[in-house]
Amino acid sequence: MRMLRVENVSTGYDDLKVLFDVSLEMNEGEIVALVGSNGAGKTTLLRVISGAIPITSGSVKWYDKELTKIPAYEQAEMGIAHIPQGRGILGTLSVKDNLLMGTYNKRTKPERARLLAETLDAFPVLKGRLNHLAGTLSGGQQQMLAIGRAMMMEPKLLILDEPSLGLAPIVVNEVFEILHQLKEKGVSMLLIEQNLVKALELATRGYVLETGQIRMSGDSKELLNNADIRKAYLGI
Which fold has domain 2-79+156-234? Predict the structure, then answer.
């Protein structure tokens, strides 16, 4: 079933136009990667979908609802979780309090104890640090905390903006192993990732965004093997 449809969306910041008639769609259970160079508009598109910025034209449909008319805080209640660049954790709160922030909605609050137990099973590195301030965690641990907090929402769609940014290669592997586990559980994901190979190995489909427009889309394996993409983004 189609869960998300972006249709001819244009937007920008004041006089700076960033997206031009962008369209994409994804179904339940899919992993979709957004590929493109810095400044292509990828983060802006994710922010449009999660309600952080308005659009100037077009529409964003969540099943049969128009998302652009729904405040961002209500989108969380609907099952949309967005992990931004920089992870967005609250460094002066404990790891436990950060996780519990994911259950402050009517849908998940009654299930708080179960969700916390399941999240700690999935992220054992956090279990021994529940009472530590989140700001004292390593970069990799903070990323796992951000993903764990999002999973506390029991999201229908998990939006990730550069989950490997600033992480050591071994930690990147750990983060993507967790994302593969979530994929096996049927979690739908829309992600931006600087590591093209890892992104397209995880994804089922991908879209290539250049200068605010979708230039190419298709099966992730086809995109990974596309000569133009390999030359532009892998230097091969």
Answer: Rossmann fold (3.40.50)
Tokens (6 digits) for 232: 């532009």
What tens digit of pLDDT does each residue of 159-169 get? 999 998 888 99
What is d(CA 144, CA 179) in angstroms, rounded to the nearest whole number? 10
Terminal-residue alpha carbon distance, the chain? 37
Phi/psi class of residue 76: alpha, beta or left (left: φ > 0; alpha: ψ in -120 to 50)?
alpha
Q: How far is CA 216 from the centre of its chain?
A: 20
Give pLDDT tens digits for 222-235. Answer: 999 998 888 887 76
Mean predicted confidence (pLDDT) in 213-227: 93
Calpha distance 210→31 (Å, rounded) = 20
- Asked if 184 contacts 177 with a C-beta cutoff of 8 angstroms, the reply is no
The answer to whether 35 touches 89, Cβ cutoff 8 Å, is no
pLDDT in tens, 60-103: 999 989 999 898 888 888 999 999 888 789 999 999 999 999 89
Cα separation, 214 vs 180, whole angstroms: 26
DSSP symbol at 233: I
Among 56, 63, 95, which Cα is nearest to 79's?
A: 63
Of 48, 28, 26, 46, the C-alpha closest to 36 is: 46
**The predicted structure's pLDDT at residue 160:** 96
What are the residue boundaries of the structural domains of the chain, listed by start? 2-79+156-234, 91-154
Query: Using alpha carbons only, how large is the chain's radius of gyration in Å?
Result: 17
- d(CA 83, CA 47) in angstroms, rounded, equals 10
Per-residue model confidence (pLDDT) at position 235: 64
